[in-house]
Amino acid sequence: MTVLSNPTAQAAAVALFRDFLLTSPLAIVVVLSLVVGLVMVVLFGYTSDQKAIGIAKDQLKAHLLAVRLYRDQIPVVMGSYGKILRGTGRYLKLAFKPLLYVIVPITLLIVQIDRYLGSAPIPPKAPFLLTAHFAGSDELNDVTLDLPPEITMTAPPVHVAASNEIVWRLAGSKDGKYEIRIAAAGESAAKAVCVGSDLPRISTVRLRGQFWRRMFTSAEPALPENSPIESIAINYPDRNIDVAGYAINWIWLFFILSMVAGFVFKELLGIKI
Amino acid sequence: MTRLCGAGALARLRASGIKLQDERCCQLADRERRLFAGKSARAKQFLLIALIFFPALAHAYAGPGAGFAVLSSFWAIFVAFLYSFYALMTWPIRQLFRFIRRRNAYGKATFERAVILGFDGMDPDLADRFMKEGRLPNLAKLRDKGTFSKLRTTFPPISPVAWSTFMTGVNPGKHNIYDFLARDTSNYLPFLSSAEIKGPKRHIKIGKYSIPFGKTEIKGMRKGTPFWHWLGNAGIFSSVIRVPVTFPPEKFQGVLLSGMCVPDLKGSQGTFCLCTTRASSGKFREGGVRVPIERKNGVCRSYIPGPDSPLAEKAGTELRVNFEIRPEAGLKSARITVGSEKFTLKIGEYSEWIPAEFKAGMGFTAHGICRFYLKELSPEVEVYVTPVNIDPGHPDLPISHPVTYSIYLAKLFGPYATLGLAEDTWALNEHVLDDDAFLAQAYGNHEDRERMLFDALDKTKQGLCTCVFDTTDRVQHMFWRYLEEDHPAARDVPHSQHPKVIQDLYERMDRLIGRVMEKIDDDTLLMVISDHGFKSFARCMNVNAWLHQNGYLALKHGKTESGDWFEDVDWSRTRAYTMGLNGLYLNIKGREKQGIVDPAEAGALKDELRQKLDGLVDPASGTVGVTGVFVTDEFYRGPYTDNAPDLLVGYGAGYRASWDSVMGKVTSQIFEDNTKAWSGDHCIDPRLVPGVLFSSHKFIEEKPAIVDVAPTILKLFGLALPAHFDGKPWRLATKTPAVTTATSS
Known about the structure:
The structure holds two protein chains of two kinds. Chain A is of the alpha+beta class. Chain A folds into two domains: 2-118 and 249-269, no CATH class; 127-237, no CATH class. Chain A contains seven helices and ten strands. Chain A has a five-stranded antiparallel beta sheet. In chain A, helix 3 crosses helix 7. The longest helix of chain A is centred in the middle third of the chain and has 44 residues, at 74-117. Chain A is extended, with a radius of gyration of 26 Å. Residues 1-61 and 736-745 of chain B have low confidence and may be disordered. The longest helix of chain B has 40 residues, at 63-102. Chain B has an eight-stranded mixed beta sheet, sandwiched between helices. Chains A and B meet through helix 3, helix 4, helix 5, strand 1 and strand 3 of A and helix 1, helix 2, helix 3, helix 4 and helix 10 of B.
C-alpha cells in the first residue's frame, strides 16, 4: 500500500501500463493468457464432473501402467491398449460438457483479440493490395476507386475476369485510419485501411452476407445485400511476436502460455482436468 | 504456420520485383490475398466446424481446461502406442533370450497356471461342517473333484510363521520368523520380527530443521527365497497379492503387493484414532489413541495424529492433519473437511478413503489415506479414524514390486487399505467400533482384494497367481464368541440371538471360489489353502505368572505384578520368561544381557519346564490348558535357530496366552476369562489347528503340510527343487507332472 501511494511508484506503474502493457503485444498476450488460464480452469472445474474425470484419468494411467507391468504378455498389452482407446473416448466425453461452456467465450475472445494482434497495419509507404470481388464480370467494367489523399495508387489495377476481381496496388503516406470507397453499377462501398505501427483494430476484409465468415474475419459492417461487390479485402501483413528470437503468431503463444497458466492454476486450485 | 508461409510468399514476391500487371502476377496476388485474407478466417471456421463435428480437435482451442484434456488423451494414446510397439517388437527377442537361457519356461509344466487362494485361518472342521450342511457348494465341488484335506501348519501356528513357510518351503529355522515379535536379547524388549525400518543416519541442521540426508533403510528380516522367485528365474510370471511377510517387497519376475506386516504411516502395525468431545483420561491398551475434539460455535475441530516429523530435532514431534466437523441440521449427519477434501457423513457410515498429507515443512510430506466413521453427534461428538495407511497411489515406503504395481491398482480401483493388519480388530476390542462397523470395514477391504485378485487372474493367463485374504482370520478372531453357547465375551447376548457371522463368512468365501472357478479351465490348478485353523479363545493363560509362581521368574522386591515388557522383573533371579504368543525363552548366560542360566544346564531346564507345563490344568474348569510344550531344538533346523524361542507352549483348545503375558507382563492370576471381542484364536498347540487344503485336481498325500506347497508348485511347473527345501512335493492323481530331478539350487 505504501508503494502504491508513492507518487514516483504511481508514475512508474502508469508508465509501465501505458507504454508497455497496452502497447506491447507480448505483454498483452502474457497477461491475457494468465487471466484466461485462470478463468477457464475455474470454469472447467465448476462445469465438469470432477470425480468422473478423476476416475477416467486414473483408469487411463492404470492401463498405461499395465502395458509396462505386463509387457511380456502380449494379449494383456493389446487389451490394455484397447482399454486406453476406450478410456480416452470416455475422458473426452467427460470433457465435452465443460468444453461447451468454455468454447463460446474463448472463441469470441480469440476472434476479438485477433483483430488487434492477428495482423499489423500497413507500414507507411509500403505497397499493399486491395482486392474487390464482384458478383458478376459485367460490373468489372464500371468500377471506380475513391482514395483519400493519404493513400495513393502505385500501379494500375489488374482485372481478373476469371474470378470477377479487381486488384489495386496502393500505398499509404502516413499513419492513420482511412476509408477507401469503391463504386460499381451505381452502388458504392467503403473499406477501412489502417496505416501505421500501433495496435489498431484491423479488419482484413469486408463482406456481403456470409455471416459465419464475417463473424470470424471481418470487423466491419456487412456490405449491403444489393451491392454488386461481394467482398473487399486488404492484404495486411501478419503480426508476429518476437519471443527469444523466434517470430511467433500470437495465437500459438496464447495457446502455450494459457496452457502453462492453466496447468499451474489447476494444481493450485486442485481442479482435475 | 500457414500464416508464416503467407508472409514468406509475399516477401518473395516483393523481392522478385515482378509487376502485378501480368496474369502470373495476378495469380500470385490472388494466392497472396487468399493466403492472407482467407487463412485466418478458414482457421476460425475450421475451429467452429471442429467444435460441432469433431469436439476432440476443438478441445485444443478451448483454452487450458479442455486443451489439457485433449493433450493428455493424445499423450496417453501416444505413450500407450510406444509402449505397445516396444513390447511387441522386443517380445520375440525377450522370448528368444529366455529360451536360450532357460529353455521353454512352460515346457515341462503340468499346468499352464496355478492359482493359490489363501484364506487365512480357514478351519477344516468348520469348512467340513458347512459343506455337509450344503452351505459351501463350490468348496464341496473342489472336495469331490479334487482334494479336501487338513493341512499341517507350522510350529507355532501363527500367520507370519506359517505364510513364511508357505512361500519359502522351509521350517522357521531357515526363514527366521517365529512370531510377530522377536525379542532383543540386550534389553528384553520386543521388535517386529518381519522388517526393520531405520531413518537416514545423517542429518543436516538448518535453523530449526534437521534435514535427513540419505535414504530410509528398510530391511526385511524374513530369510529364505519365496518360490515365485524360482519361478521367475525360470521365466514364469507370478502375480502375488497380499501374502503376509512380503514387506519390504523383493525384486523378481512378476508383480507383488505386500500384505501382513506392512506398517501404517506412523510405523506401527495399526493405530486407530478416536476423536471425541468426551473427557477421558483412559488410554487404549494397544492399537489406538484418543484425540480431543474442540467444539466452538457449532464447529468441531480435531486432528489425525501422523508420523513423527523427519525434520524435527527432537524425536517424537508428531505431524498432524487438522480436520473440521460441521454437524448438519437434525444432527444425523455432518460435513467433514480435511484439507481440500469435503464430504458428508451420516452417523454409522464410513467415508471413502480420504487423503491425509502430513506436511513437515521444506517440501517433506508423508502421504497417507484414512477413512472416517461418524459415531455420534449428540450429545457428544465422536469420530473414529482408521489407522493412516500408506497411500498406495503415492507410496512413501515400497509396498509393492515393482513400485508402480501399487500405483497401478490404486489408479484402477481407487485407494485401498495397505496396512498389513488392515481390519481394525483393536477398535472392536476396545468398543470403539461395534460389530457392524467392524464388519463393514473388513468386508470393504475384502472387496478391494477380490477386485485385485480378478484383475490378476485376467492378467496372469500363464504362471502363478496367488492372493491371501485376511478377512477369514480377522472375522473368526472377532466373532468366534457367537459360535459358542457360553463364551465369556458373549454372555450378555442370548445364544438364540447370536448372529451367524462366521457362517456368512464361509459362504461368502465359497461364492468367491465359485467366481474364480468360472475364470479357470482344466489347464489351471486351483488350490485353496489356509495357514492354520481356528479354535475358541475363552480362557487366557499368563505363562509369566505361572513362571513367577513356580520360581522361574522373579520380580523386584516388594512387587507382586510387573508392568508391560518386564518392567519390574529381576533378571538376576529370572531363569525363564515369555513374550509373544507361544515362545518361551530361557535367560541364558552370554545370550541374554542379564542371563543367569548356564548353557550347559539349559537342556535340563527345558525338560523340567516341559514336564511341569505340559498338561497343566485350569483349576476353574478342570480342563487341560496346555496340551503340549515343544523344545524347539528338536524340530527347528537352519541358520537362524539361535533367534528361536527355546520352548513353544501349545495351549489347549479354548486357551491362549493372555493379553498381558503376550506383552511381557506378570500378573497374579494364571488363568482368567477372555472377555474381549477377540474371542477365537489359533496360537495354540499346532496339532489342534491345521489349515485346509482344497484343490481342483486330486493330490495323493496322506498328511500334506503347508511347507509342501512351494515344492509342489515348483514341481508342477517342471522345475528342479532346491536342496534346502524341507517340504516334499505332493503327487498329482489326475495329471502326471514331468519328471524332475531334485538338485541343489
